[in-house]
Q: What sequence folds into this?
């Protein structure tokens, strides 16, 4: 809804100010399970982008002590970005995996709309006020969501990266201190 969108924009500006003033993004850590969290955000973004097929692929039941709302914010930003810049009526895949080193990875992959992202585009992708494309017909944001996603991952001592090839573009979020539940 418009009210939720406006509230998110205000929250993004407040977070940007905190990040720029050196305070970083504040976290409210709690026991968090990624599978239900990612599933919820997938359904939310899929409802807002019915022209795409957003699917869960290999979602492991991983948990950790993370800020659930902030991780949801990261996943929402990546899914929205994938839907905006991916192939029209294309598939966006989301996966959650655990690693033997005690980390978890959330991967968001979309099919390309055109050519793969250039190295220059990838180098500035997480800068504030940058958008994924200079094409005025693509995207409507002011370029804060990916910047804030990176800041949230830094606050968690994790990372976020992107790779792009003719197969598609994939974002990889790595969260430390994960535990697999069976």
A:
């Amino acid at each position: 809804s418009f009210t939720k969108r406006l509230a998110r924009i205000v929250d993004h500006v407040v977070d940007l100010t905190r990040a720029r003033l050196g305070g970083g993004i504040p976290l409210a850590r709690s026991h968090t399970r990624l599978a239900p969290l990612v599933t919820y955000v997938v359904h939310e973004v899929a409802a807002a982008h019915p022209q795409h097929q957003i699917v869960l692929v290999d979602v492991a039941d991983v948990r950790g002590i993370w800020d659930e709302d902030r991780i949801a914010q990261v996943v929402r930003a990546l899914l929205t970005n994938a839907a905006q810049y991916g192939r029209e009526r294309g598939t966006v895949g989301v996966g959650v995996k655990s690693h033997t080193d005690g980390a978890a990875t959330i991967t968001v992959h979309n099919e390309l709309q055109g050519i793969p992202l250039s190295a220059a585009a990838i180098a500035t992708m997480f800068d504030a006020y940058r958008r994924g494309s200079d094409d005025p017909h693509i995207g409507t944001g002011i370029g804060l969501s990916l910047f804030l996603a990176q800041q949230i991952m830094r606050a968690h001592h994790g990372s976020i990266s992107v790779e792009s090839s003719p197969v598609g573009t994939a974002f990889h979020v790595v969260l430390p201190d994960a535990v697999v539940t069976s």
